[in-house]
Write a structure and sequence with these properties.
Largest sheet: none
Number of domains: 1
Oligomer: single chain
Strand content: under 5%
Helix content: over 70%
Radius of gyration: 23 Å
Distance between the termini: 38 Å
Number of helices: 11
Length: 290
């Protein structure tokens, strides 16, 4: 039968649920993130410090092992300050992992002009970005709050005293701080990667956006003798916020501490700018120049 004699009609069968469509994006994005050995290597390096902290918790709760290995050194204190160090280590290693994975999730689609094809399917721009965001969120969770909470559980198991119930704030603070940092890294990494088609360049830009303003903020703080330059310094800003969430002792002078509202406002402004960048870049169209 000739093509023009066919009668075409709209599809009236069952539709795939929206969450399942996003799940397809998540599955393939997760597979793309782990399709290279570099990702596995970075993940291994990111988990290695957890073993060191695990040994520290074991020594702090085992008198015999501490005597044999540390030879009478002062006993480790497993408190909010200890878990703050764990959180800082894993969070900055998560930045390295995000700088590598995020460009792989978006840059390849842009370089191959695949967005018009992907968005021609029953998936919205929001669903596309959400799928990529969830995949990156899952990857970063493996090196941040999951190992941190495992260490918390191990400390509760190893301690001779009823430690867990007395330190639930540490567990909640670690989880909240990690989720906040992961969300910030994920949206920042995807936004910057969406504007650069070259993966290596996108990775460098992610590092530059975090550390170049930090250097400028340090110069402003040193020259003008004001604490407000730290609002450009992500490491200092996040460390202060994590200390307050976990209830850890401060490590800087009191006059250098930023208000929590100022830190949260800066984070929200950066996230809003990233959303605008994604909205402008993730489009179901392709510009053809004649």
């Amino acid at each position: 039968m000739s093509v023009y004699k066919h009668e075409y009609r709209a599809y009236t069968g069952p539709l795939t649920p929206l969450w399942a469509r996003v799940g397809v994006i998540v599955r393939y994005a997760f597979a793309e993130a782990w399709s290279t050995r570099i990702t596995a290597t970075l993940f291994t390096l990111s988990v290695a410090p957890v073993i060191v902290y695990l040994v520290g918790i074991y020594l702090a709760n085992n008198q015999l092992a501490r005597t044999l290995i540390m030879r009478g050194s002062p006993m480790l204190t497993i408190d909010a300050g200890y878990f703050l160090k764990v959180l800082e280590t894993q969070s900055w290693l998560a930045l390295v992992l995000a700088a590598w994975i995020a460009p792989r999730l978006v840059s390849f689609d842009l370089a191959d002009n695949a967005l018009p094809i992907l968005l021609s399917h029953p998936i919205s721009r929001f669903g596309y970005v959400l799928g990529k965001l969830l995949a990156l969120f899952a990857c970063l969770s493996l090196v941040t709050w999951i190992p941190c909470l495992l260490l918390f559980a191990f400390q509760g198991y190893s301690s001779a005293q009823p430690w867990v119930m007395a330190n639930l704030r540490i567990a909640g603070g670690v989880l909240a701080s990690s989720l906040l940092w992961i969300a910030f890294l994920s949206i920042l990494g995807l936004a910057l990667s969406s504007w650069v088609k070259w993966r290596v360049v996108a990775t460098g830009i992610i590092f530059a956006v975090v550390f170049v303003p930090a250097g400028i903020g340090g110069i402003i703080t040193g020259i003008l003798r004001t604490k407000w330059g730290f609002l450009l310094n992500a490491p200092v800003m996040m460390t202060q916020l994590w200390q307050r969430i976990l209830g850890a002792p401060p490590t800087m002078q009191g006059d250098l501490y930023l208000p929590s509202t100022a830190i949260v406002t800066v984070l929200l402004l950066v996230c809003a700018a990233c959303v605008l960048m994604l909205n402008a870049r993730i489009r179901a169209r392709e510009v053809v120049r004649g």
